[in-house]
Design a protein that fits this description.
Number of helices: 9
Strand content: under 5%
Shape: globular
Order of helices and strands: HHEEHHHHHHH
Radius of gyration: 21 Å
């Protein structure tokens, strides 16, 4: 039982650690990309790129509030404020004495990361340049804890490489005379740009992290503990199904998170190059004048 509990705790800490690190990396990339785009085409231009992404960002918070029974007191899906640079918000209330509500703060905080990863993959899939089975095959169906560090690095690199190849295929092989492809491309740009949790989002996620980790460990350990021979057969089947979906959720989201972060890296580099190109053009115009 001790080894089972140790395995459960390590598995949970690794999974939540990946969520936290991934969310912070994505946040940094999104902020830098937004700054570069604003520098290149102005704040108004950034707003034109932002509407769908901000709406999805706030919608993800609202949906998680519903899942964890938080009371939504006020919501603005898109309400840009040039002074505060706030583009939207979801205010919610919860019971601080409820561990369920407290754990919900974690998932509400990182909701844009979670939903952004899913929606970006679905958009790439709809363009026919990425397939979930191919991405999942790179992991050999193993969870993070079931691979050593080198294997995890290799898996992350292969998934990132596959994502870059898919993006390259989207740019070079798709027909950009199609209005639908332009619409999907615009949605990808906007959603990736605003998939990173804000500073306030991460503060809420930190406040709920300990409760969320405790609940996850409790559920996982309970499922593993009950999945033994002395458990009734009808319950074993249900527990096996639950355990399977918990494990597949971890593996799938790890893959989708890498896809999203890789897309954010590509967007950041592209926005940086755009910023340099526009700055150089302005410099040439000024020198010519």
């Amino acid at each position: 039982m001790t080894s089972l509990l140790t395995h459960t705790v390590m598995d949970t800490l690794i999974f939540f650690g990946v969520l936290f690190i991934g969310a912070y990396i994505l946040r940094w990339l999104c902020i830098r990309a937004q700054e570069n785009i604003a520098s290149a085409i102005g704040y108004r231009g950034l707003m034109y790129c932002s509407f769908p992404g901000v709406v999805l960002h706030e919608l993800s918070h609202a949906l998680m509030c519903v899942v964890f029974s938080h009371r939504i007191t006020e919501v603005r899906f898109f309400d840009p404020n040039p002074q505060t640079r706030q583009l939207g918000y979801v205010n919610h209330a919860w019971n601080p004495n409820s561990i369920f509500h407290l754990s919900g703060n974690f998932f509400i905080g990182i909701a844009p990361f979670l939903m952004g990863a899913v929606v970006v993959f679905l958009l790439l899939w709809s363009m026919g340049v990425m397939d979930l089975h191919q991405v999942m095959a790179l992991s050999d169906g193993k969870r993070l804890i079931e691979r050593d560090l080198d294997e995890n690095y290799r898996y992350a690199w292969l998934t990132a490489e596959h994502t870059i190849v898919s993006l390259q295929a989207a740019l070079t092989t798709l027909s950009w005379q199609s209005l639908l492809n332009w619409l999907i491309g615009y949605l990808l740009l906007s959603i990736i740009l605003h998939a990173g949790p804000s500073k306030v989002d991460m503060q809420g996620a930190r406040e709920g992290a300990s409760a969320a980790i405790f609940v996850w460990i409790l559920i996982t350990f309970g499922v593993l503990l009950l999945s033994r021979d002395e458990t009734p057969i009808f319950l074993l089947d249900w527990l096996a199904w639950l355990r399977y979906w918990m494990e597949i959720t971890q593996v799938t989201f790890a893959a989708l998170a890498i896809v999203l972060i890789t897309c954010a890296v590509v967007l950041y580099v592209s926005s940086w190059m755009l910023c340099l190109a526009v700055g150089r053009r302005f410099a040439l115009q000024q020198s010519a004048a």
